[in-house]
Specification:
The chain is an alpha/beta fold. The chain folds into two domains: 61 residues, no CATH class; 181 residues, 3-Layer(aba) Sandwich (Rossmann fold), CATH 3.40.50. The protein is 26% helix and 20% strand. The protein has seven helices and twelve strands. α5 crosses α6 and α5 packs across α7. The chain is globular and about 50 Å long. The relative contact order is 0.15.
């Protein structure tokens, strides 16, 4: 079996005209490799490689892509991919993670690896609902050979049922789409189970700005105070404001034409931990 082209050892934020310079350090990427074509078939999952010369970012327009991309999909829906859009959307959480971290959702194992490779991180517990995804990730991300493997624990189960009162940070990325109304109530349930003093979830920037607009606020008036109000309203100790540019990045993400503007109601939401 021929290995895939080497993935990047580090994901960085290539500057391009008209795009913001992101205040986040590059982070480590797992050593992805080819796996058997039928791996994941029991759960309907598919791991694949593809090439893109450019791809929209999360905080701005198209960025150059200088590496092979990888995706984890099921039923025609891509749950995670190694694109600028997804990597950038994780960056605030990876940047802030420290101490004892619980990661909700295995996905491509990108968050687990990037966080575990940080010197400020002592332990990473990944909670993934689907054992098929865990088995696939062990193969395509070569988890057992990670240089940070001694920091890693993998738990198969529902994140809402996991208990870890010692966690310092909760990082959750379990949804296939942005702007799902299920995100906030699910995140609140996860935080009740794992009451870490600091937390991050995928797409929180969009939810924060959307709630600000729904309450009658102006988009250009979304600032640190507005984000803090979102945290207070939801009861979630969300990170982000450690970086002065964060409110502006939230506004940029909320206007990104590559992200669907419509919200997905709770009753039609599809999610998996």
């Amino acid at each position: 079996m021929t290995p895939f082209a080497d993935p990047p050892a580090v994901l960085s934020w290539d500057a391009a005209p008209g795009l913001p310079r992101l205040p986040y350090a590059p982070f480590a990427c797992p050593p992805y490799r080819e796996i058997a074509a039928d791996a994941g078939a029991a759960g309907g999952w598919r791991f694949s490689k593809f090439l893109l010369p450019v791809c929209p970012g999360y905080f701005g327009g198209p960025r150059p892509v200088r590496h092979a991309c990888f995706a984890l999909a099921r039923g025609g829906v891509t749950w995670m991919s190694l694109t600028p859009m997804e990597a950038e959307s994780m960056a605030p959480g990876v940047d802030a993670a420290a101490g004892r971290v619980v990661v909700g959702g295995m996905g491509l194992a990108l968050a687990a690896f990037a966080i575990a490779m940080k010197e400020t991180v002592e332990r990473v517990t990944v909670v993934e609902l689907d054992p098929v995804v865990v088995e696939m990730a062990r193969a395509f991300a070569e988890i057992d050979g990670w240089p940070c493997a001694e920091k890693l624990e993998i738990v198969t189960g529902d994140l809402a049922d996991h208990r870890d009162p010692s966690a310092d940070f909760l990082f959750v990325d379990i949804w296939p789409y942005y702007r799902m109304d299920a995100m906030v109530p699910q995140m609140q349930a996860f935080h009740r189970a794992i009451p870490a003093p600091r937390a991050f979830y995928w797409g929180q920037e969009l939810d924060a700005v959307d709630r600000h607009l729904a309450a009658g606020g102006a988009r250009d008036g979304f600032d640190a105070g507005a984000f803090s109000a979102f945290c207070e309203e939801t009861g979630l100790p969300l990170v982000g404001l450690e970086r002065a540019a964060y409110p502006d990045l939230c506004r940029r993400a909320s206007l990104n034409p590559a992200i669907g503007a419509a919200r997905r109601p709770v009753e039609t939401a599809e999610a998996s931990a």
